[in-house]
Amino acid sequence: MPAPFETSFAQALLDADRPIPYGITAHNAAVSARRFAVYRNNVVAGLVKALKSRFVVVDKIVGEEFFAAMARVFAAAFAPARNLWRRSSRFHRQVRTGAWASLSCRRGAA
C-alpha cells in the first residue's frame, strides 16, 4: 500500500486542480508550483505519447489535436498503475464506441 505522500503525489500529477503535495518545497512557493507543473506536464505528455504510438490510425482519423485532448482525459481517468499497455484496450473500446465523452464525467469518481 502506498504511503500518503506517494498517493497525494500521484493524484496531483494527473489532476491540475489539486495542490502540489505537502513536502515538495523550494526557497519560494511559486518555484515549487512551477517545477511541479513542469513535471506534471512531462508525465501527462508521456502518457499521451504512449497512447499515440499505440493508436496511430485513431490519431490519423480523429486528428492530432482531438486525439491529444481525448488521451489526456483518458490518462487522468484511468491512470496506469503499472502498465499503460494493459489499460490501452479500455481506451480502444472508448474510442471505437464513441464513449470517450463520458470519461470526463467519471474522472472525479476514480
Short synopsis of the structure:
The chain has 110 residues and is an all-alpha fold. The protein has helices at 4-14, 29-54, 56-62, 64-77, 84-97, 103-106.
Structure in words:
With 110 residues, this protein is mostly helical. It contains six helices and no strands. It has one domain. Helix 2 packs across helix 4 and helix 3 packs across helix 4. The longest helix has 26 residues. The C terminus is likely disordered.
Rg, rounded, reads 15 Å
Q: Indicate the structural class.
A: mainly alpha
What is the string of SSEs from the N terminus onward? HHHHHH
**How many helices in DSSP terms?**
6
Distance N to C terminus? 17 Å
Helix and strand arrangement:
Elements: H1 4-14, H2 29-54, H3 56-62, H4 64-77, H5 84-97, H6 103-106
Helix pairs in contact: 2-4, 3-4
Features:
110 residues, 6 helices, disordered C terminus
